[in-house]
């Protein structure tokens, strides 16, 4: 049956056009009930004999998605009109409901009511779109009831009063979510419910006196006004990013003024969350505030700076605002525009991890209690929730979702989603770290595991006879990795050639031989993006059999590899290079310590040791050349834990030691990556996946230069070469000084990112840190998905395999590289958070005195960096109560903080003795405190 | 964007392998020697054929075969927004050429030397797949004019969106930016006379998409044959045979 839909639509240019679309109505859309006599039941999803079938209204799906994800809700028909409305309103909820619908364990059926001959309805004159859709839902419900007969109760779940009334009038069973959930007799589900806004008594937690019921935030402007404001240039649109270290300060990157707008304080932020797309109005220039970050924490609430790991790059570090005219000009008005948020264009609400604020148990347990939830991530405000199980939740880490934020409420209201575990428990806290960083740690699904080759796997004769695979089993290949490494993805060999040159090979696990494009395994790996290394566990990108056995280049077993083989002169000049798939048999899997010991032990003269020494001498030459080109030797304060094998508690922490053997392996990996980058870019100039490291801007290096100037050190940052040289010359009176400067320098730079070569122009491909014009990741396909892609590109460039179709779609490749960057960053954050967590556990039992360096001066104290443990945190000179007592003043130019009477002064980079101890200011909230001795 | 829902329905409610509704009518322009209207969903095309007749421009006359000319145009009202389209722009010149070459391949031109056949096609309403609709309309009109042909050329488009081959793209699917294959075949001879594609496709996928388009062409051919048969029966009836 054919039917034409006609509607008017506004085009992008602003013209109103009539659109006519065909709309085919079908009679082959089935009801999805397996017991139905009329319909084809091959695609049925509902259970065999349900007592009730639920039909959901759009508002139920939009607001109660957490409830729907609970297994207790089942036998649900999701109408296509509902899906369409949900998709238009909230894409993330749409993805979640789609995931439920496609989950074979849930009995959710999508009924395409809009294309069914009997359930499609035409808009009546005078009927709004909304009313029409509500009617469509009712018609579909009615159809289901008639179709399935009286044996099954078809229940419409709606929270729309009008819709419910009309449904009842038409003789359809309809209930609200509350009444339905209550009828299930499952009190735990009630907490998952989102209460409709009119039912919430806002002030119950804050204050019950009506006089205090006042409007806290200004009203958001209506969408039409925002659009016209954006047009006229009085509002600016952008994504809100809240400062990780100071939740009262946020930034909106605005294209229209080409600068970041700073937003101070919750009232200016006007209920916006981190990640929301907002409309901002600039404040008059005289209200632009001078930077507040001069004191360690803005104390309008009881939140303050925690001790955390020393940041590794500019992206992690707290943002500092470059000071204009810091010398001389007093009373300078900041030139950075400040603004306030007038409207929120798109919300970025999701669920948050944290715990309830401690509160006394109210009398008469069992009733509904209002509680405040504190997110672990400090960028988010407290969230008010209702719960019936307060006594259970008080000492737990829980997940909470946000529902609304009313103008009269200081905090947004939300609802409980689930419990993770007890606060302070290591497993719980690790889980929190994973959830906060959006890391999927679920076991691999059966579809993914089905893609694995049968175990036990070994190299087959087919592989051996494959002409594209070269047999390199006769070579003396070995691998050098951290101790206890199970996912060995790289191995090396070095053979002296008769002509005096060396043949050097880098062999990388041939993951793409097992992970084929388009399979569930590949999709899962692409989604995970990278393996995540926490202190006590590893979350793999690929299933364990692949990671630890089939792909891992272990010693004395035959393995498939992808090899890069160079011929090099003794001066480490590359004569020729080639790439091939291969079969290797590693003769030794050494740890760095072992390899180093072999090289150092002059008595050992066996062939393997000779190979190692040859490689090392080549690596040293390559390294030297790289440094001459201007590669930066950056430093990070990486620490290593020794973990108790039984309890998994940290036993000791120390700096990560870097040996020559590490540098040797690193050098050859870099060379392989560069070499492969050149090869793939040559073949696929538009769709190669490369990695770039942007040159830091002047502003980014500003804090480093200021610090350096204060101690009388001149750094030339004009080029990476100049920077590398001046870093080399920065030698202070103590051995750690140079490393400290390097750590500070590293911190000023942004991180390297993946990108698709078609998106940028060749000069932008540059990798600043390595001083390489081209770079990519090729050497760790077991733990990074980027390498898997590069393997496929390389194979295609050699003509071994066809390029998978996704490479033809530049947009898709870009979205993959964006995802990789996101996952990579999250994995790093999770790793750091895990180290922080273990640091806390470690110091819980061991209060320590140690040496620290001052890295940042603030008006009421300073930040210190503890080299031994790689952590950074505030030391307060004044106590909180006598805030800004005026005893101390800052010498901005010399970066010093002095006592008024001149008796004491601390300057930047100075070494101080501090005491570290874990304190618990509030129950269940342990934190590490640093204090001067 | 989602062009095929997980339930396997396209935006307009069709399944991936389904064509739009087709409708044809013979004899829409009585002055012409042969004419037809062809509709594929909301795409509506009219074709008129004159000839074989005397060659208008003597210099173009060929002694061994007939001259085939084709003119394609789009009515100003064919799309929603009224736009004055200059005659002879690049796009319509190209489509004229494509239609001419496709039709020439099936017309037995050697039987009609010193003569000329004019094919005029005009798009009355455009909703994707105009090229295919024009060829189908032209075939019908040629048959109506009684011009000897090897076979009925039929055409249909197919595309590839959301990793699914789709038959007979409408305007929305056409402008999605995916590959769009227009195919013309001689169904009885099983020969391809036209193959055009926008954008790129890996070769194995192209084969699938093409196979789908061939199915589509054959379905169109069956329908056209039915229409012609019915038309002939009516003519027979009118003659009183």
UniProtKB/TrEMBL annotation, chain A:
Domain RNB, first and last residues per copy: 469-800
Keyword hit for DNA repair: no
Keywords recorded for this protein, A-Z: Exonuclease, Exosome, Hydrolase, Magnesium, Nuclease, Nucleus, RNA-binding, rRNA processing
GO cellular component: cytoplasmic exosome (RNase complex); nuclear exosome (RNase complex)
Keyword Hydrolase: yes
Gene3D superfamilies recorded: 2.40.50.690, 2.40.50.700, 5'-nuclease, Nucleic acid-binding proteins
Record-stated family: Belongs to the RNR ribonuclease family.
Protein's name according to its UniProt entry: Putative exoribonuclease II
Organism, as annotated: Lupinus albus (White lupine)
From TrEMBL, chain B:
GO molecular-function terms, A-Z: RNA binding; transferase activity
Domain Exoribonuclease phosphorolytic: from-to ranges: 18-148, 151-216
Keyword Cytoplasm found: yes
One Pfam family here: RNase_PH
Iron among keywords: no
Subcellular location as annotated: Cytoplasm; Nucleus, Nucleolus
GO biological process: nuclear mRNA surveillance; poly(A)-dependent snoRNA 3'-end processing; rRNA catabolic process; U4 snRNA 3'-end processing
Keywords linked to the UniProt accession: Cytoplasm, Exosome, Transferase
Transmembrane segments annotated in the record for this chain: none
InterPro entries with a match to the protein in the record: ExoRNase_PH_dom1, ExoRNase_PH_dom2, ExoRNase_PH_dom2_sf, PNPase/RNase_PH_dom_sf, Ribosomal_Su5_D2-typ_SF, RNase_PH
GO CC field: cytoplasmic exosome (RNase complex); nuclear exosome (RNase complex); nucleolus
Assigned protein family: Belongs to the RNase PH family.
Protein known as: Putative polyribonucleotide nucleotidyltransferase, PNPase/RNase PH domain-containing protein
Organism: Lupinus albus
């Amino acid at each position: 049956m054919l039917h034409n839909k006609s509607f008017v639509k506004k085009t992008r240019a602003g013209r109103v056009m009539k659109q006519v679309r065909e709309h085919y109505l079908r009679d082959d859309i089935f009801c999805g009930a397996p017991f139905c006599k009329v319909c084809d039941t091959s695609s049925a999803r509902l259970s065999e004999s349900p007592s009730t079938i639920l039909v959901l209204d759009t508002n139920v799906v939009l607001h109660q998605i957490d409830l729907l994800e609970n297994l207790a809700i089942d036998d649900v028909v999701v109408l296509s009109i509902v899906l369409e409305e949900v998709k238009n309103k909230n894409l993330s909820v749409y993805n979640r409901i789609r995931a439920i619908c496609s989950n074979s364990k849930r009995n959710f059926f999508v009924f395409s009511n809009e294309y069914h001959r009997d359930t499609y309805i035409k808009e009546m004159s005078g009927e709004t779109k909304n009313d029409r859709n509500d009617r469509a839902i009712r018609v579909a419900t009615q159809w289901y009831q008639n179709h399935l007969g009286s044996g099954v109760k078809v229940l419409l779940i709606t929270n729309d009063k009008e819709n419910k009334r009309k449904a009842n009038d038409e003789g359809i069973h309809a209930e609200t979510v509350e009444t339905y959930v209550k009828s299930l007799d499952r009190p735990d589900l009630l907490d998952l419910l989102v209460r409709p806004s009119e039912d919430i008594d806002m002030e119950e937690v804050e204050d019950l006196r009506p006089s205090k019921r006042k409007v806290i935030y200004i009203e958001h402007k209506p969408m039409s006004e925002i659009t016209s404001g954006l047009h006229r240039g009085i509002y600016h649109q952008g994504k809100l990013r809240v400062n990780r270290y100071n939740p009262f300060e946020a930034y909106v990157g605005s294209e229209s003024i080409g600068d970041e707008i700073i937003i101070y304080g919750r009232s200016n932020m006007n209920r916006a969350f981190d990640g929301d797309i907002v409309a901002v109005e600039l404040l008059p220039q005289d209200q632009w505030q001078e930077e507040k970050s001069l004191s360690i924490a803005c104390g309008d609430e009881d939140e303050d700076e925690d001790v955390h790991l020393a940041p590794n790059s500019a992206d992690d570090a707290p943002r500092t605002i470059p000071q204009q005219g810091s010398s001389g000009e007093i009373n300078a008005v900041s030139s950075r525009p400040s603004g306030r948020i007038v409207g929120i264009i798109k919300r970025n609400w999701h669920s948050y991890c944290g715990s309830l604020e401690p509160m006394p148990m109210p009398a008469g347990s069992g009733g509904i209690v209002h509680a405040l939830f504190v997110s672990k991530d400090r960028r988010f405000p407290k969230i008010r929730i209702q719960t019936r199980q307060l006594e259970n939740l008080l000492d737990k880490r829980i997940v909470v979702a946000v529902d609304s934020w009313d103008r009269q409420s200081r905090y947004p209201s939300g609802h409980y989603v689930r419990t993770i575990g007890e606060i302070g428990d290591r497993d719980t806290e690790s889980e929190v770290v994973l959830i906060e960083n959006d890391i999927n740690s679920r076991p691999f699904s059966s579809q993914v595991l089905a893609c694995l080759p049968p175990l036990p796997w070994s190299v087959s004769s087919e592989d051996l006879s494959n002409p594209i695979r070269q047999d390199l089993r006769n070579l003396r290949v070995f691998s050098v990795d951290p101790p206890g490494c199970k996912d060995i993805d790289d191995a090396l060999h070095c053979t002296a050639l008769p002509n005096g040159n060396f043949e050097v090979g880098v062999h990388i696990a041939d993951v793409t031989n097992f992970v084929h494009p388009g399979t569930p395994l590949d999709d899962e790996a692409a989604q995970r993006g990278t393996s995540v290394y926490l202190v006590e566990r590893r979350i793999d990108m690929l299933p364990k059999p692949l990671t630890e056995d089939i792909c891992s280049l272990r010693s004395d077993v035959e393995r498939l590899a992808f090899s890069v083989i160079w011929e090099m002169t003794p001066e480490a000049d590359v004569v020729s290079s080639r790439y091939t798939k291969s079969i290797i048999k590693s003769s030794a899997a050494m740890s760095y310590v072992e390899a180093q010991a072999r090289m150092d032990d002059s008595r050992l003269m066996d062939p393997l040791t000779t190979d190692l020494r040859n490689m090392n001498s080549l690596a040293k030459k390559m390294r030297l050349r790289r440094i001459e080109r201007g590669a930066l030797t950056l430093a990070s304060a990486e620490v290593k834990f020794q973990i108790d094998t039984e309890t998994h508690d940290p036993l000791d922490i120390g700096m990560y030691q870097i040996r020559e053997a590490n540098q040797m392996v690193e050098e050859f990996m870099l060379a392989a990556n560069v070499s492969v980058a050149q090869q793939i870019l040559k073949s696929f100039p538009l769709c190669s996946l490369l990695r770039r490291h942007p040159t830091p801007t002047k502003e980014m290096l500003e804090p480093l230069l200021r610090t350096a100037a204060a101690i009388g050190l001149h750094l030339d940052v004009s080029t990476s070469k100049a920077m590398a040289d001046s870093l080399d010359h920065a030698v202070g009176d103590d051995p750690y000084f140079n490393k400290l400067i390097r750590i500070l320098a590293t911190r000023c730079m942004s991180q390297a990112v993946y990108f698709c070569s078609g998106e940028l122009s060749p000069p932008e491909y540059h990798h600043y840190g390595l001083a390489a014009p081209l770079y990519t990741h090729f050497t760790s396909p077991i733990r990074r998905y980027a390498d898997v892609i590069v393997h496929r590109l390389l194979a295609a460039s050699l003509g071994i395999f066809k390029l998978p179709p996704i490479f033809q779609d530049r947009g898709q490749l870009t979205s993959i590289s964006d995802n990789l960057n996101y996952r990579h960053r999250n994995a790093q954050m999770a790793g750091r958070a895990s180290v922080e967590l273990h640091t806390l556990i470690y110091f819980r039992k061991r209060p320590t005195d140690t040496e620290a360096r001052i890295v940042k001066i603030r008006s009421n104290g300073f930040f210190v960096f503890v080299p031994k443990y790689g952590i950074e945190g505030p030391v307060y000179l004044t106590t909180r109560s006598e805030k800004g007592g005026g005893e101390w003043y800052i010498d901005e130019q010399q970066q010093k903080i002095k006592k008024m009477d001149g008796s004491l002064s601390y300057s930047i980079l100075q070494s101080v003795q501090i005491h570290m101890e874990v304190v618990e200011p509030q129950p269940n909230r342990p934190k590490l405190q640093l204090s001067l001795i | 964007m989602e062009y095929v829902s997980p339930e396997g329905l396209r935006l307009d409610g069709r399944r991936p392998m389904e064509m739009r509704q087709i409708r044809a009518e013979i004899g829409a322009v009585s002055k012409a020697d042969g004419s037809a209207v062809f509709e594929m969903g909301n795409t509506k095309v009219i074709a008129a054929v004159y000839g074989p007749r005397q060659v208008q421009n003597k210099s173009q006359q060929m002694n061994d075969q007939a001259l085939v000319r084709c003119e394609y145009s789009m009515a100003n009202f064919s799309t929603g927004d009224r736009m004055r389209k200059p005659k002879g722009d690049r796009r319509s010149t190209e489509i004229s050429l494509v239609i001419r070459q496709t039709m020439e391949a099936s017309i037995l031109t050697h039987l009609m030397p010193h003569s000329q056949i004019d094919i005029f096609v005009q798009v009355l309403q455009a909703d994707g797949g105009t090229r295919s609709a024009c060829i189908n309309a032209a075939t019908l009109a040629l048959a109506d004019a009684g011009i000897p042909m090897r076979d009925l050329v039929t055409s249909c488009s197919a595309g590839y969106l959301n990793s699914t081959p789709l038959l007979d793209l409408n305007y929305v699917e056409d402008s999605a930016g995916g590959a769009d294959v227009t195919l013309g075949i001689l169904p009885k001879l099983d020969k391809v006379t036209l193959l055009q594609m926008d954008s790129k496709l890996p070769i194995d996928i192209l084969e699938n998409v093409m196979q789908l388009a061939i199915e589509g062409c054959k379905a169109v051919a069956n329908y056209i044959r039915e229409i012609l048969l019915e038309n002939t029966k009516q003519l027979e009836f009118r003659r009183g045979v």
